[in-house]
């Protein structure tokens, strides 16, 4: 029931008190179990459960775009958007929630931007990426700021931003980084890192889009890496939006999150990506395509710590298209939470080869409307998948599915 930190000779275990709290929390939660009686430690039986942890039913807006990590103390932390409307045009605030009992119960949402932060009233703030440094025991969250309106008062929409990148920066577009040294309980004041994410002035910033990793082996051991999405037109302003200029890549840090460097990219017509370190030390990016392309998933790899990437190849999987979560299992195979499509429903769990070039479906975890997801492996081989869901729309509330290794091993094809 312990977790080996790959960077320090430390173990984190459930104490008797935390186990008692976990059992009590489970008794109060409405879980759907294949086998009743499990909470906290595995008793050697296949266990699966799911629950709504943030309910937006009957309220405007949505809990959206979750990203999840395992903290230095072995807890679960989710960062997400508290939305009043959609992607653009209405206020968005960055919030986070934590669980100290293996996903059984969760804290109330905590806003990550101070109440007196500049331009809270006329900008949107999105938490776009998160990564844990297990050397310094710090957690880093990337937050983007974009103006709600143009200077003439009209709403600033996504396509307006992409065709006027530098002008949008002049109007307030910026990037900030916050950090926590106490397992996500408190957070630092935001610091500006916009210039660190700009590779060329007429390109979009190397914009973090999901949870990151820290490399555990090889010449780049200790490097922090975040997947990014970039819009790289030949000029700015550009005459129109073209998805061929959209690509995925990474941004990385070799000084424990003090400075960040834009890395390589994976090709044209890509939307968002999730990443994982393969058992051979290479970086693997699992990607969705732009809406203008066929709804299929792609992958690319890097052998030099994210500085360059191979040409992207098809994984053989359909896509909604929608963002996905990915981790590596102890045996080197990959585990993916995703929505195969064509509609945004049927949240699916798939298993991939050690190289990520062959995939097969293991289970449909939720047949409801579902969308963006992320996945993590907690101490003691408890797995969590957080995802967007709702009754009539896939982006409304936030849910968590929870299962153990015995449940995985019971699935046909595992």
Task: Report on this structure.
There is one protein chain. This protein has 414 residues and is mainly beta. The chain has four helices and 26 strands. Strand 17 and strand 18 form a beta hairpin. The relative contact order is 0.14. The N terminus is likely disordered.
Query: What kind of sheet is the major sheet?
Result: 7 strands, antiparallel
Structural class per helix/strand content? mainly beta
Shape: globular
Mean of residue pLDDT?
Answer: 90
* Number of E strands: 26
Rg over C-alpha atoms, rounded to the nearest angstrom: 20 Å
CA(first)-CA(last) distance = 22 Å
Query: Reading side by side through the largest sheet, how are the strands ordered?
Result: 3-26-25-24-23-22-21
Question: Helical residue percent?
Answer: under 10%
Contiguous helical run count:
4
- Give the strand content: 35-45%
Order of helices and strands: EEHEEEEEEEHHEEEEEEEEEEEEEEEEEH
Low-confidence stretches: 1-42
What is the topology?
Layout: E1 3-4, E2 11-12, H1 16-28, E3 48-54, E4 62-70, E5 76-83, E6 92-99, E7 110-111, E8 123-133, E9 138-147, H2 158-163, H3 165-170, E10 174-180, E11 191-192, E12 207-208, E13 213-214, E14 224-231, E15 246-253, E16 261-265, E17 270-277, E18 283-289, E19 296-302, E20 313-318, E21 325-328, E22 334-338, E23 345-352, E24 359-378, E25 382-389, E26 397-404, H4 405-410
Antiparallel strand pairs: 1-2, 3-26, 4-5, 5-6, 6-7, 8-9, 9-10, 10-11, 12-14, 13-14, 14-15, 15-16, 17-18, 18-19, 19-20, 21-22, 22-23, 23-24, 24-25, 25-26
